[in-house]
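Sequence in, structure out. Go.
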Amino acid sequence: MLPAAVVSGIYQEWADMVEILVAALITIVIGGLAWRYGRQAQLTTKEGFAIVGLAWIFVVLFGTLPYIVTSTLDGVTNAFFESSAGFTTTGASVISQPENIGHGVVFWRATSQWLGGMGIIVLSIAILPLLGVGGVELARAESPGPRPDRLTPRFKETAKRLWFIYVLFTLAEALLLWAGDMTLFEAISHSFTTLSTGGFSTTSESLGGFSAYAQWVVIVFMLLAGMSFALHYRGLRKPTEYSRDAELKIYGAVIAAASVVAIIGIWGGGVGRTVRDGVFTVVSIVTTTGYATADFSLWPGALGIMVVGLMFVGGMAGSTAGAVKTYRIGVLTRASLADIRRVIHPHGVFPVRLGGKKVPESIVQSVQAFFLFYMFLFMTGTFVFGVFSSAIGPDLDFVSAASAVASALGNVGPGLGAVGPTSTYLEVTALGKWVLSGLMIAGRLEIFPIVLLFTRELWRR
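Output:
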């Protein structure tokens, strides 16, 4: 929070600066007491999941303070929703005009997404020596994907390398955007929310208010952010690593095919604008960034279905993107084809392979279990959210409710209809916002760390 207070000071927003400093002081005092009276212990996998789930809930809770003390948002519900969307890198917001609030608060929104993108726990492992014990257990619970990709024998060193690439790309994008039509503040804020695939913008028009150059720069860095950062680390040292990665081929094929369909579906007007809007929207949704240059909720119905479907895909495992991930999509597809072949040839042996490599049965089972839980949460969340919305607030149509839940669970942000890219979630009922906030956190932590908090087995000694 301290850099956000500095930004307020730079823009001479003295009241916001003092209030954000108060929020930071509260966090430092309570965090310091927890540090002082806590104890170091060897962590089991079970404890690692519990710690990550609880830590993220408390991080989001303390993240509400800058919104509350500056009176940017009314009530704990809106502040918790905005903080959840920030740290989980979901582009959903209850702030309709970011350009009308203080620069420090806007910077805090961007900072929360940047911290949540690569992972607060992974950052802690990289910079705090006291978290060296049990680091792998914590990283396993927080890192997006079936398992954390280790670049070195010690995960602490892996975490440092991943954050190095993350910071390097952030600086590169900020410089390129600053060279265009963005101010330095806008460039830094958008680089924070692009590399984290977060989607918070400094204006209500999102990226639609900036030049074509800025939009293409953002497209490139959204694509990079949706790729595995471990792959980036290896690929920057040895470029052939990119061409040999099977998941990257799936990721590229999905984006290319969906972009072609989108461009054909919205064809009309200027060719450059049509191509740019189609590619931008597809990349933004697949990478779960949530930026917008066009109101895709007004696109033809078939394209709307495709957009919602893309919300379930997500980027590569080990990226900052949310949703199911292309690695799991590939494994699920291969496993389904293998099952069909077993029906035809009951005595045959058909191992699941991806990119010519055999996928261990344990990974196949974990992927299938994750997808089952993911779809269960989507269906249950849609029902609960729809009931809360229709019973005590403005009635949302099914498309709006289902797309809002899919967007929250996949950490995308905008949905269709009443929660489209030109709208906010401000009019959603209080209970509806709490449901969506819970889905955002569950989606960012890939469900299990949150679900396990509600099981008796987790709390048994």
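Check: The radius of gyration is 21 Å. Residues 361-392 form the longest helix (32 residues).
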